[in-house]
Hints:
- The protein is α/β, with parallel strands linked by helices.
- It has helices at residues 12-23, 41-54, 79-82, 104-114, 128-136, 166-170, 172-179, 190-193, 200-204, 212-232, 240-249, 301-312, and strands at 2-8, 27-34, 62-64, 120-123, 146-150, 185-188, 254-263, 273-277, 293-299.
- It has a nine-stranded mixed β-sheet with strand order 3-2-1-4-5-6-9-7-8, with helices on both faces.
- The longest helix has 21 residues, at 212-232.
- The radius of gyration is 18 Å and the shape is globular.
- Calcium ion is lined by residues 8-9, 11, 14, 37-38, 124-125, 241.
- Keywords: Glycosidase, Hydrolase.
- It holds the Pfam family IU_nuc_hydro.
- This is Nucleoside hydrolase.
Amino acid sequence: KHPIIFDTDPGVDDAQAIAIALRHPELELLGLTTTYGNVDVEVATRNALLLAQLAGRDDVPVAQGAASPLVKTRFPPPAHIHGTNGLGDIVLPEVQGTADPRSAAQFIVDTVNARPGEVTLVAVGPLGNLAAALQLDPTLIERVKQVVIMGGSIREGGNVTPVAEANMFNDPHAASRVLTAGWPLTLVGLDVTHRCVLTPAHMARVDASQGELERVLAGSYAFYRDFYQSFLGIDGCCPHDSCALAWLLKPELFTTARGHLTVITDGDAEGQTILAPEGRAFIATRWSRTPPVDVCLGVNGNAVSDWIADALS
Ligand code: BDR
Ligand code: CA
């Protein structure tokens, strides 16, 4: 079993990934930490608590984190993609539980330090919580097992600007700190998530009559699908955040490259992620100074999409 902390801004595709994290037999979900991004952080926390409750997993702690980016002015939540409630504007049941009293960053520090070398951080929203955890305890990089991040794009282009992926664009300064901190890290970005499609046929297997969690997953999917029709011209949607879990449990379905990442923090290209492949000696050495990381560049999209659909149903 992989002990994980799942850092998230739910969000329709986050909700799918959370459902997998809560139920998959090979994952031990130690906690959900929340950030603004697809929605305000209070809404993200409410959704995380609700999803855990609907899965019968209210034993899983939820700790609230970043309400805004480290430096830049906050970009408004994309209500046309995720709905104003983050879950496709479907009617939601009442939440019973409450959040952990600790901040997300403190929760991450405490949990990793209690199990040195064991915990994987999976982050699928803007990276303010991981940046804050590093600030609280810079030695964390020695005790985290690995960090898996959904975000960025090397060759695919962006989804918020022509060059920037949403999680990087929402807090490029935090992303820069986290991606260059020197911990074992894999980036799962648009280069692979745009090759994966959760189709209506896949979602038909998630039977909304089975229970409230299935109703939320099916209902929010129906809303999210419209964006992918207009943005990518596909029938279905990209299960970005679940791809990070697919990488963790099924790495053989991906190909990676190792190299040095730079996140552009200002100007028209803010949020762009640039990879300098390891071993290539660029004349301008600033492009190869950051500690090396692994970046997913290729994927068996059909196999990953089928794996996600299986894990959801
Ligand atoms: C990422 O941005 C968010 O909107 C999604 O939840 C995902 O984490 C995709 O660019
Ligand atoms: Ca997300």
